[in-house]
Amino acid sequence: MTEPLQPHVVGTDVERVDAWAKVTGRARYAYEQPVPEPAHLQVVRSTVARGRVTEVDARAATALDGVLTVLTPFNAPRLRTGHDAELEVLQSDTVWFRGQIVAAVVAETPEVARQAADLVRVEIEQRPHDVAFSADRPDLYKPEVVNPNHPTDTVTGDPDTAFDAASRAVDATYTTAMNHNNPMEPHTTVAAWHGDDDVVLTLYDSTQGVHPLRDAMAAVFGLDPEQVRVVAPYVGGGFGSKGRPHAHDVIAALAAQRVEGRAVKFAVTRQQMFSFVGYRTPTVQHVRLSADVDGRLTGISNDVVELTSRFKEFAEQTGLPARTMYAAEHRRTTHRLAALDLPVPSWMRAPGECPGMFAPEVAMDELAEACGLDPVELRLRNEPERDPDTGLPYSSRNLVACLTEGARRFGWESRPRLPRARRDGDWWVGTGVASSTYPVLRRPGSAAASVRYRDGRYEVGIGAADLGTGAWTVLTQIAADALDVRLDEVDVRIGDTTLPRAPVAGGSSGTANWGSAVVAAARRFREKYGADPADGDEYTGSDECGRKRFAAAAYGAQFAEAHVNVHTGEVRVPRLLGVFAVGRVLNPRTARSQLVGGMTMGLSMALHETSVLDERLGFVVNHDLAEYHIATCADVPSVEAHWIDEHDPHLGPLGSKGIGEIGIVGTAAAIANAVHHATGIRVRDLPITNDVVFEPNLTQGVIR
Ligand code: MOS
Question: Residues 667, 578: contact at Cβ < 8 Å?
Fold first, then answer.
């Protein structure tokens, strides 16, 4: 394994190296990339959820001045099919979901493209659709694996017998809502088709990974990866929705192929983001906990139901936290899916762990109540010695430190033991806690980096993506330390497939994967050329692959204060506090931003976010930011993120665990638990809107 980095500027509060470029408008996002004489694309979407396109009449659209072409299922260039049905855009007449792209207009201006798109007449033979998500459907099925490649079901011992025998137990059903990612910058693709050049297709794209996007596009267009170039120096947020290619990438490239020689720009609208760039499945989670009188868990189970589309499967790994979080002799997790006439779900911040932490962590609060124990104490009593799922020792865990440090900082001690004990005017006041975890998904050897010495400066290149998270900055810090030079002697270049290969900015693993490659390449460069290289000296290489002998994950403890209006049920959260164990923090400034951002998204999930699906239309009707509510500044008066000083020698040269997703995990449970403490009302469904507080789901089987 690559030796640990000796940190000098790593770990310090370095300002964003891209800050000036961003605030002065010089940082170019995908849509702003200069291409000569671009054409503009607008799509036509299906107005029914299931059927068959019988005819596309584009005469009125084509007659419009400035329209270059109209693509339809009957005339679009053919793609390689059979790999990824989501990317088979305009390849057949089948309509799988409402909002599917069924035609596209390319025109001289965005305005003409939009006007022409409205003039395209698409005839669809409609068939009855089914988008009714329910855990009681008779046609639920068991997927082969859950995202990305985990076993669908796990069982150890006999949790049902343990449940029947237990003196303390919780049996309840919890639900989380369908959610849609809403990064500040909607998805954008600028595509140029160059005919028979070495590079056939260039994409300027708002993506979380230039190389993964390149490979997927090459496969669907039947090109070699080297024939596709993807450029993405700046990205205005992704949160998973830009982690994989979606239909917008393909339609832009198809259009560019049709109007070869003209680059085609496609900026997905906010409303369109609710139909073809992924979303988080709703979940129904049936959780059972059993324990002895002292609160020591004997059994844990989480039986999960969620949805997928009929044309492509995505199975969110919601059961994972229940597999690993606490010690218990008897454990089970299952996943079952309803395949519906809907778009395919995808990654959304901390897929699996985020919804999968909500239900078990509220259940733990219910168990604490059943046992007459403080909820922090209940968690402390159930610390496993080894990872219950794999039996491996932890590289480090420190959940206990997060819980105790969090309790101290939050002022947990003064908390009334019983619920509904504090009232401040018209508001009940309560506090809640939940644990969080997110796995370390680093893959040693997955990235490469280049180091070149030129004109007295070090140029470090890697195809990484900065989603606004700080990759530009942190990679500069890492390179400076690995080369043992000052920050201002290093120029980092990212976001281009002409740079060495890099995996996705996802799974909270980007920095660890890319940074390890930068460390390895910098060391080899020094070994080869010494401390005084010649102009033009260059080295490109990868870090070493290692064996995994430990269970490695980030942990956290989330504390929330909730105020609930006694008349309206309105919930406010004036205070969130999280303490995290994330290994080495590479830059406190950007790390804090990510953790606070994650916690804010968790609050948003807890109180606001829900995609309202009209089952008659098969359509999410609140498809804009006026009606899909996300937390704003006024919703989050105080969010504090802290971390413990954690030194984990098993994480590779950086010693970091990843911080992109741990912040959102557990937040919603902490808030639901605080609402219970404030009111005595147990809310098991997200989001916690006013009506839910007064008419909670009371379908739990047993609490004893
Ligand atoms: Mo994150 S949902 O792995 O981009």
Answer: yes
CATH 3.40.630.40, domain 19-29+445-542, yes or no = no
Q: Is the confidence at residue 346, as pLDDT, over 70?
A: yes
Q: Is the pLDDT of residue 109 over 60?
A: yes
CA-nearest residue for atom 4, ligand 1, is 240
Query: Residue range 440-469: average pLDDT?
Result: 96
**3-state SS, residue 498:** coil
Query: Ligand 1 pocket by C-beta < 6 Å: which residues?
Result: 208, 238-240, 243, 347-349, 351, 506-507, 661
Q: What is the pTM of this model?
A: 0.97
pLDDT digits (tens, 9 = 90+) for 464-505: 999 999 999 999 999 999 999 999 999 999 999 999 999 999
> HSE on the CB side for 538, CA within 13 Å?
11
Per-domain residue ranges of the chain: 19-29+445-542, 33-128+184-237+242-276, 145-179+279-441+550-703
- Rounded to 5 degrees, φ, ψ at 466 are -110, 110
Same topology for domains 19-29+445-542 and 33-128+184-237+242-276, yes or no?
A: no
Q: Is the Cβ–Cβ distance between 332 and 319 less than 8 Å?
A: no
**In sequence order, what are the beta bridge partners of 103?**
44
CATH number of 145-179+279-441+550-703: 3.30.365.10
For domain 33-128+184-237+242-276, give the fold.
Aldehyde Oxidoreductase; domain 3 (3.90.1170)
Dist. CA 349 → ligand 1 center (Å): 5
Residue with tokens 């460069």: 525
Answer for the pair 558, 669: CB distance below 8 angstroms, yes or no: yes
Give yes or no for residue 380 having a pLDDT over 60.
yes
Of 349, 353, 513, the one to substitute when testing ligand 1's pocket (max ligand atoms within 8 A of C-beta) is 349
